[in-house]
């Protein structure tokens, strides 16, 4: 029986089809896929700016990584051990800096608390008496709205009937809580309240200067409360 002839045409077609699939497919994908620059040009300006920032950040991270590897390579220990030691030192330095910031914040808070404990100590006795009178006008109490009232007295709460100075001496946190809870948005401007109070009393303009200084201190303190979400400041006082 004669040997069957080789079908070269079939093998040629198979090779051609395989070449088209193996070479033409990737070539087609490479041709239709846009490059990174083409994609970048299609972005809007905001996305282009963000893409450049991310690219720079990645490049900086890579450069830092390479620099660290160069430093680790100079050590006698293996790179992974040198990297672990460097990371430990970096964590300890971060913790130390955070503790220093926390202690500094506590010191500032304590300083503010001490400065707010007696804001009227530098004022004269006349300014303290007048401050209690316009403070009662600001708080809007029905029993303390008279302009001739000499001292504000609480007409609510557990210290009802006591003066503002007495409550501040007994429980300064309670006074702080009242300021944070009772003072509304329309009563933020203490200087306007002082102006209105002295207009009602028809007194000299020079008498309200100590009150203006006290108003600045109270305004700074209340702004701190509003930034904290009306949270009372421990140990504070009016």
Tell me about this structure:
There is one protein chain. The chain is mostly helical and 238 residues long. Among the domains are: 73-114; 123-227, no CATH class. The chain is built from nine helices and no strands.
By helix and strand content, what is the structural category?
mainly alpha
Order of helices and strands: HHHHHHHHH
Tell me about the biggest sheet?
none
- Strand count: 0
Shape: elongated
Unreliable residue stretches: 137-150, 180-188, 226-238
Distance between the termini: 120 Å
What is the rounded Rg?
Answer: 38 Å
Determine the mean pLDDT.
71
| DSSP helical segment count | 9
**Helix proportion of residues, in percent?**
55-70%
β-strand percent reads: under 5%
Protein name: Cytochrome b mRNA-processing protein 4
GO cellular component, one term: mitochondrial inner membrane
Function: Essential for the assembly of ubiquinol-cytochrome c reductase. It has a direct effect on the correct occurrence of the Rieske protein, core 4, core 5 and apocytochrome b.
Keywords: Chaperone, Membrane, Mitochondrion, Mitochondrion inner membrane, Transmembrane, Transmembrane helix
